[in-house]
Amino acid sequence: MYHLDNISQQKGNTHILHGINLTIDENSIFAILGPSGSGKTTLLNILAGIDRPTDGKFLNEDGQVEKGIMVFQDYRLFPHMTVFKNITFGLKVKKTNSSELKQRAKDIMETMGISELIDRYPDELSGGQQQRVALARALILNLKLLLMDEPFSSLDEALRIEMLDFVKELQRKFQLTIVFVTHYKTEAYMLSNKVAILIDGQIMQVDAPKQLESNPQNLAVARFLGQANFIEGSLSNNDFVSPVYSGKVRTVTEKGVLYLPFSGQLQLNKTEYPAFKGNILEKKWMGSNLERITIEIDQKTVYCDLASESVDENKTYQFYFSKLPVVF
Ligand SMILES: Nc1ncnc2c1ncn2[C@@H]1O[C@H](COP(=O)(O)OP(=O)(O)OP(=O)(O)O)[C@@H](O)[C@H]1O
């Protein structure tokens, strides 16, 4: 296990990170997910030893200070060096003998599927190929902890999916611990089964993706994850009053904002529950078998994802809440 022990970072008068505590399992992929400017790169730079924290430590299981090797968003290959020279640069610095260096380069290039690119320069490579070279350059050093800063953000959708699968395969093959940061939640969910949410330099929640979506800890997490309606209302005891919903709620905090996710909460046509009327204003196909429905409920517009063809536009239906809603 790796431990981020109370890591804080301040630059000038700006407090960027506030006492970050995290435990990261070895041989796993751990995602740090947060909006732009939340401190993700700052944190990763500390884990890589590129930057020193104002306070706190990054420790391994034995309590020793740890640092990982970083793969950057823009790959940072040396432009004047061939793929071979880029990949073997670290071994050269370590004065590894030439036959071992060649053998390790051959092995890692085969693993990464880039053997035929050996003599090319970075500007002769596609984004995906550059990323493979950047990964090879890190993995050839036999380090166990790999840090990745927004690794897939510049790739197109198809290549991104391919690289996600490839990185998963690499993780298993080399039993790596990968910590990667992203602002793109689907990427975090697809790659990792444990995700930490970083907002304004603070870890707000650490959970499995499904838990995050169904049980965000606070309004900041819920708003960042998106895909939900947020409806103002007022609370007295456990009764909530708002245009869309009035009644019992699960209260997490007392600000009085109803959290109504687009999926899983509003259900159609079950008359055994207390129901309310909604007028379908619009529906948009979302891919797969889903439509995003715009509903008017008591003069308030809300969105809801339903199976395709469940409702028609300009008609009124009965809805109900499938579970007690959360109010933040
Ligand atoms: N040297 C610095 N001095 C002052 N403020 C800084 C410094 N470096 C970063 N910051 C600020 O710290 C905050 C976090 O920056 P950081 O780059 O870590 O965020 P991020 O989550 O990686 O953002 P992005 O996803 O946009 O890359 C930002 O508001 C940034 O302006």
Summarize the structure in words.
- The radius of gyration is 24 Å and the shape is elongated.
- Helix 2 (83-93) crosses helix 3 and helix 3 (98-112) packs across helix 4 (127-139).
- It contains eight helices and 21 strands.
- It is an alpha+beta fold.
- The chain has a six-stranded mixed beta sheet with strand order 5-6-7-3-8-9, sandwiched between helices. A five-stranded antiparallel beta sheet has the order 16-20-17-18-19, with no helix packed on it. It has a four-stranded mixed beta sheet with strand order 10-15-21-14, with helices on one face.
- Helices cover 26% and strands 35% of the residues.
- Bound molecules: adenosine-5'-triphosphate (ATP).
- Adenosine-5'-triphosphate binds next to strand 2 and helix 1.
